[in-house]
Amino acid sequence: MDMDNDDDDWVTSSDSETESSEDQNAEQFVSPPPSAEQQGDQDDEPGTSTPADMAEPKTMIARAYQREMYEESLKENIIVAMDTGSGKTQVAVLRIREELSRSEKRVWFLAPTVPLANQQHKVLETQIAGLQSRLICGSDHVEAWSTPQIWAQILHSIRVVVSTYQILFDAVSHGFVRLDSLSLIVMDEAHNCTKNNAVARLMREFYWPSKSAGLEVPHILGLTASPLMRTNLEDLDTLESTLDSLCRTPTKHRAELIARANRPQMHTVQYEVLVTAVSDTTPTMSRLSQVYHGLDITKDPLVLRLRADNTRRSRYKLTKVMQKRSTFCRREFRSFCNAASNMCHELGRWAADYYIHKVINDFIQNLEKRGSERIGDITDAERNYLAEMFAKVNPTLPAPIPSILSTKAQALVNVLASHQSGSVGIIFVKERATAAVLRHLLSVHPSTTPHFRVDSMVGISTRPGGMKNFLDLSRREDLISLDRFRLGKTNLLIATNVLEEGIDVPECNLVICFDKPNSLKSFVQRRGRARMSTSHLYLLVPGTSDASVETWKEFEEKMRQLYEDDMRQKKAFEELERSENPDYPILSVPATGARLSIDDAKRHLEHFCSTLCSRKYVDTTPYYVIQTCSGKTLNDDDPEPVKAVVHLPVSLVPELRRFESLRSWLSQDFAIKDAAFQAYKRLFEVGLVNDNLLPVRSTDFLPGIPTREGLAEVRAQLNPWLEIAQAWQRSHGELYTRRLSVMNNDETMFAEFDMTLPVPIPYMEPLTIHWNAASRWIITTSEEQKVDPRALGDSKPDHSLALLSMAYGHRQGWVHPEKRYPVRFQAVGRDLSLPDLSECEPSPSAMEGPSKGHLVREKGASDNPHYYQTWLPNKPPVEMVGRVRLPNIKNADFVYDLAPEGPYVVIKRWPKKAGFFRLADLTVPLPSNKKPYPRIHPASLLKVDAIPPVYAHFGMLIPALTTALETHLVASDLIAGPLEKLNFTDLSQAITATSATSARLWTDYERVEFLGDAVLKLVATVNVCAQNPLLPEGMLSHLKDRLVSNSTLFRCAADAGLDKYIISRPVATRKWQHIEDLVEINPKDQMDKRRELPTKMCADVVESLIGIAFMQGGVEKALDTMAHFIPMPSKMEWQDIGLGWQTLFDRALDIPLPVTLRPVEQIIGYTFKKKGLLVEALTHPSYNVPGVDACFERLEFLGDAVLDYIVVKALFEGGGLKNSQMHTLKTTLVNADILAFFMMEWMIEEERVDPVIVVEDSSSRESSDDEEERPRKRAKAAALEFKQVRSTVRHPLWSFMRHASPEIGLLQRETEKRHQEMREGIHEALRGDKYPWVPLIKMRAAKYYSDLFEGLLGAVWVDSGGDFEACQRFLENAALMPLMRRLQSGNVHLYHPKEELGWLAGNQTVRYDVEERVLEGEDDEQIREYGCQVKVGDALVAEIWGAANKEEARCMAADEAVTAIKLPKLSKDGDVLMEDADADVDGGATI
Length: 1487
Known about the structure:
- By secondary structure, the chain is an alpha/beta fold.
- Helix 2 packs across helix 3 (88-102), helix 11 runs antiparallel to helix 14 and helix 39 packs across helix 45.
């Protein structure tokens, strides 16, 4: 039976399913560990559904020793020798990425087996995206790629090739691939590259001759396991000379490597070997043997075909066949019998019967499928013949539960039964068929089934024309079994030696050698799979074989020596540390008494670095490089003084990332502490560590500003009437008059009034005051006139009291005839005296004549005014009357019989309130009475106003007009006071900036605050970035947040005295202020008067003034306003953003653009002047490798502000949108999910050529029996028809992000799959009438997608000279600006489901109850999913399941709830109260 060997071609597959997420930046630099609740929130991140029993994937970050090996590989050709499981592949990834960035040549990655090549190709695909790579193996019919042109086409645009050793050797030897076209060759499992190995021949026959001739040759990087390299030094020398490389082990970090290496406990399990007798065979085995011995060779398909041909050649071949009695069918049958016998010997009688039944059953089923899967080079006749013979065996399916096992199999079961809880293991076997049968046996055995989920992994030959032996029981499912094991879906894997080296598998705590390893190398590699802290390695050996036991003991002794060497070195390190007594200075801060010693520095430094970046998949741990003072290799037996260099995270600027120990040490540990101390001392000197020797906190930047409370006590609103009342008391002061023109909207009423004050009257722009939903009044103001009160005399009497009485006199206590109103109103051309207001009696002729349209009033004390509607000569029937008013009778509706006879007047109520600046403030009128006469009054009890109703209407508007005048007076004082130095002149804009929504004026600050917030954020961000080059992004963000926080702005508003100018009171329709009352108020008492305001309101006024300044004079004037109100931290000042841009641009690196990043400029449509900005914008913080100067964090911080500014400015300037609409639109345009979608849609296309081989059908092939035919068949295979299939490969913009995290690569692939599945639906929604909140959230894009978008925008802003038009073109190309125009112009529902549900619920509480459950998936896979119930009040409105995380569940449930109740509103008990039509939410749900 065939065994796996390293030279075969194998196929496997890997498809990891992992969770996608990335944390937001932390809000504090120093914070305690999260509580359980906080931890729960942190875990609630975007991700895919994950198996319930699967731990979160471990973040694979380049460790210090990996970075060291990477640096060494840049200097010279090396063979990296590191223990199994220590991450050699990560070194190769870093080296390949660097080579691709600086060379346009191709990189070739070599692996000894196809499974390993397939695995490494997937690693490279996920970690080095944005370019094309290709895996080439035997199944690609490489023998048919017979010309250089074919190779050139297939490798066109391919930057990385992964293949087995032989493929590259053949390609070079035939001249299809030239060595000088390669820049780097990576050789995995390089210890195999000796003797006649294909790589060894490649080096001897092509590499060395080219190098000797002075020709260009590729760089070499080898990867191997260090224990293998320590077993034979002569072999090491040979390997180094062959590969032109030096073997390098990270000796500088031996302590770290040793600490990570775990030695499993080794156990030898002996089993009794029983002699197999004929009687031990099963009936099925006997029938199989009988059928074989009964085969009639004359009926064999080969013999029949040769006889039928009857040619000279066929007759000769027939003679040989008959002499040898050897045909394909007979050989296969003989192998079948031997395999069954071997299975019985290895596993027992039950296993043998299962094996025979399985082979025959699978063969016959495959025959029925006819061609669904090839069974080697076998003709149809041979297939049918074998099936006929197999049918005669009539195999019996054994009992479901294994019964009779071999002593060896029973020993295995016993070992497994002793390891039940938490075991993850691999069983190594020799034969493929053994793996298949053992997989089934352990899956059903009662001792193993409860604790182990079993699968198998073997190599499968897929070489064209090669044999896929059906006796091996190989299956396609084996191709995904390794992935299942990686994901934790299975915990016991049965494998052949294909899994010994190279293949990446999880750490195990149980490794069992079912069969003897072939060599010490094989033994070492198997041992390396048991890497958990407490692991076991079992060796099953026959108890009767003394030689075998001695061999195992020899292996074990060699391994023990290797481990003892490592442990001896580890103890030596510890002894050195104890022997040194450092005399080292202390860092102390006298102001606080804080101090730091060398023993504390490393811990403090690690804590500081942990505060720099909270993003997932970023290792912020400092890493140290140990260097000998002499420059020699570190000798563990004779240590010499060393120094340490510490490297800090890439979040810091380059000048703060590398520090060296002050002195040399014998102990590596003290050298590390010394380097850490020097680093921390420098961080303190530059201000990144505070006087308490802790990382800087946000409160350190602007001390003295308390945390903002919701409400605060501030100065009372400025009362201008105090000064005016005092001025009225002065008898000879000047008076100021403005004429008011008053007209209703239908121009049916008009009047003019002179408004007089003893102080200058500010000009008021035309003012609209709403009477009701259908009627409004427009008041315009003339130029101001000065009046001498002595010359005025009685020519202009004060009509204020008369006007107010006409409107409000019927309300008890509202009008005080004995007091004076602070504003004097005089009707122009009309004398208004109180005794003459109501002189006329109502009559039809009067109401239709001179008194037409006049108000009617009730006689008596009430004096209630009404609108006259129509005259009724007689008292109407009660059924025609809605309501009757009778003097001094309440509930007159119920005493209609008491109403007098005679004529009646149909009346309409005079409003209780009128004079609103906003339509939204009008109360909704009650449904009108549908009776013919809704309201009537006896005519005899009414009187008619003698003057037109316009004066009563104006009187009703006086409170609103007075409020408007007061607002202008306050704004005038503001301009003359706190705003004097800022040259603010526009009174209306000052009113806008200081008017809160609660004042219900014709304007408020909401829109300009929205603008000012974005302008402030931009200017603050640029200043903070430019003036603090050493601060990392996290600290910059906290400094900016502190600078523009509501706490800071509130304090600025209070300190500048802005609080008293904030208009927050609504119009007062009663309790008016009179001169007599005002003069009694002590001005000092008024100054000390306080009120409570939301602190955010005060902060909003500062931002509103910034917005107004921006409208008046652009960023320059806005900057003056910021400098006037907002203090900067020490050593900082408010600077023009142009100066800030220049600083940032000058600081940017001007470096060549790496080859791999060149397509990015074409994608985004912008060519960078300083390429270093583009490189920085595309570098993730995880990419902390030598030579990297910065990551995208600072540019993302800047780009976020630029994006907000551009979007807000465009929304503010276009379309006259309401504040709520602008907020909603901004949310839809700059949220992380839509930015991620833009990143996935933004791409460049590249052509790819794939080979397609037309393979001849097996039914037309001749029998594969004759060895003489094999050369001819190989030639025929080489001449197979080759077709080119051209396709388009898309490289999305996100794929060019440089990172060093395999998890990010895997998550990107998973996200890309979801994007491809959902993109059409999202596009359709964006073109439709509802924004796709839920689909975007379900795409589960990690935050680094939007960070990348904003980082690129920030880079464009800096590189373009702060050109916002260039940035806007970037956003046009990204499709953001077109989407903005689409959402503005179309009828698109924009509200987030949770926000809309909150509106629909009204005053009722919305509660989201999220639950988690585990489901059984395919192949017993357990899938974790989330569900959510939404309750509004006490009513259950919606319930969903199927979300991948908690936030996704909430959003999906909210969307379902909105759909379920839209738009029935809910009452307190959950019942439907009313149904509205398709109403907007606050005017902003639909744009």
